[in-house]
Design a protein that fits this description.
This protein is an all-alpha fold. It is built from 23 helices and two strands. A two-stranded antiparallel ribbon has the order 1-2. Helix 15 runs antiparallel to helix 16.
């Protein structure tokens, strides 16, 4: 009894120490997040907003705060905000930011620093909301990992094959801090870029779909909202399928342990509910599009703004490249050189190419790795988009800590058999991580230099800046290829481990491939769930 008491006391002490360590770690992460948000406010307070807003890396015709102020001024004068060629954001964005712009203008020039802070307040709040959504997404991922570990333990480490690593509890904090401390997101927020709206809508839709009790209508509504706060209509339409898949399957589906304990619902009932969630996501998306389309059209009806006028100023403008101001993309240079009678052909080609690649990606990974599909589809339309900024890059990089976590560990089959050979070849994302990071740093350094040499000093030409944008394009393309390559390697390792497990244990292989056992359903977001598998260790012992 004394020994049992000592062991119990030691366990309580270790548990309390662990809780204290986790609390201290959480406090440090929270301090970093607060510091990152404070850095945005300080940059604006000390007058860095105007210099940053003039940078082509941080501002574009479709997400500029200066153009929002111009639209708000036109509305004050009783004119349509889309008169002329200044405003190219949907009316919902103008409705959202107009109150802050009015308050800032009311402060006047005598309180210019405070006026700048008021203008930047919605952007700082928006970044905080993006970080909160990413934190929730990573927390769902960690919870799924814990559920899967419990299932694996129940099944004697044989049948619950994982495709995600042994994640740690610091992943949610790391994911949120990675976005808030990213220099791209910090500078974009200080410059007043509205690009974070798209990232927030995508993150919110993903969280709503991944919850243990999914909210498919809310997920579809969040995704539809992105359609009315950004000028690129392709991305929300393409993301409908992976988000609906997440709402149908979820990240936190029932583990084997829960299914063995409950067993209340048949597969047919579960399939009906999953199909209903998938359809509810589509219904929520379509219904929200109708509602927001009506609101956007009626918002400035008193200024005679029509549906055709604001769509031409936003979606049609982005498609037709109405502004060829140099930016981080490649469209401005190429279309400045193209003859007029070839323009429409190349417009269709340049806009269809990322959509075509996205469709192929969704066919391959839209159902099995939806989070990976969401991240890469966003990345493709940023890299090949007409007006990319650092805010767009930070938006798709925000999902990387979650879906790349799956690429860094052995499968449970390798851990079970003990015969998984150590792979001397580095992971794809590890091999290319330094090259991509170095290329992004170099392009970030050379872009303002070559801009100064070309536009201000007039000792260079457009080829200098275009060379930098090509390097930026190549770096992001290499990053996308590395993610896809890592997913392919991971799938190959999963299949190899499954076959090796069957070789080493004929009984287990017979159980796995028999008619009594169901499929191993692997979803993205860091989850591998064995659905209704009676061939568990407990079932084998009973037989």
């Amino acid at each position: 009894p004394a020994r049992v008491t000592a062991v119990a006391s030691h366990g309580r002490v270790a548990s309390s120490r662990r809780r204290a360590s986790m609390a201290a770690s959480s406090a440090r992460w929270t301090a970093l997040m607060v510091a990152a948000l404070a850095a945005r406010v300080l940059l604006v307070h000390f007058g860095w907003h105007a210099p940053l807003a003039s940078r082509i890396e941080l501002s574009s015709p479709v997400d500029s705060l200066a153009r929002l102020r111009e639209g708000a001024a036109l509305v004050e004068m009783g004119l349509s905000p889309y008169e002329g060629s200044m405003l190219h954001v949907p009316p919902m964005v103008l409705l959202l930011f107009t109150p802050f712009l009015h308050v800032a203008d009311a402060l006047g020039a005598s309180k210019a620093p405070y006026a700048s802070i008021v203008r930047s307040a919605p952007f700082v709040a928006l970044d905080a909301l993006v970080a909160a959504a990413l934190f929730a997404l990573a927390a769902i991922y960690v919870e799924a990992a814990k559920d899967d570990r419990r299932a694996k333990k129940v099944n004697d480490n044989k049948l619950a094959l994982r495709t995600f690593s042994e994640t740690q509890d610091r992943l949610p904090h790391f994911t949120a801090c990675a976005y808030l401390l990213n220099p791209m997101s910090v500078l974009s927020c200080a410059a007043g870029s509205t690009s974070a709206l798209g990232a927030f809508c995508a993150a919110a839709a993903t969280v709503a779909a991944c919850k243990k009790n999914p909210e498919p209508i809310l997920a579809g509504a969040c995704l539809a909202t992105r359609l009315f706060v950004t000028a690129d209509a392709r991305v929300p339409l393409l993301l409908v399928y992976p988000v609906a898949t997440l709402a149908r399957d979820g990240v936190c589906a029932k583990s084997v342990l829960e299914e063995e304990r409950t067993g209340k619902e048949s597969r047919r009932t579960q399939k009906k509910k999953a199909t209903a969630r998938f359809r509810a996501t589509l219904v929520g998306f379509v219904a929200t599009c109708v509602v927001l389309g009506f609101i956007s059209t009626r918002a400035y009806a008193d200024t005679e703004t029509t549906f055709r006028e604001w769509t031409n100023a936003t979606y049609v403008f982005a498609f037709g490249l109405g502004d060829l101001t140099p930016n981080l993309g490649i469209h401005w240079y190429l279309f400045a050189q193209i003859f007029a009678h070839f323009r429409m052909f190349f417009l269709v080609v340049f806009h269809a190419f990322p959509a075509f690649l996205s469709v192929l990606l969704l066919v391959r990974y839209g159902h099995s790795r939806p989070l990976l599909a969401i991240g890469i589809v966003s990345a493709l339309h940023t890299v090949l988009g007409p007006y990319p900024t650092w805010g767009n890059v930070a938006g798709y990089l925000a999902f990387a800590p979650v879906f790349t976590r799956d690429f860094k560990s052995k499968t449970s089959a390798e851990s079970t058999t003990g015969k998984g050979k150590k792979n001397k070849r580095k992971n794809v994302e590890t091999r290319y991580g330094f090259a991509v990071s170095a290329a992004l740093v170099v392009t970030a350094t050379l872009t303002p230099i070559f801009w100064h040499l070309w536009i201000e000093a007039r000792v260079a030409n457009a080829n200098f800046l275009f060379a930098v944008t090509l390097a930026h394009f190549a770096a992001q393309s290499l990053l996308i290829v590395s993610w896809i390559g890592a997913a392919v390697e991971r799938d190959a390792a999963y299949s190899s481990s499954f076959r090796r497990l069957g070789h080493d244990d004929d009984d287990s292989a017979e159980d796995v491939f028999s008619n009594d056992a169901s499929d191993v359903n692997t979803e993205d977001g860091g989850r591998s769930v064995v659905r209704d598998a009676p061939a568990s260790g407990l079932a084998r012992r009973k037989r």
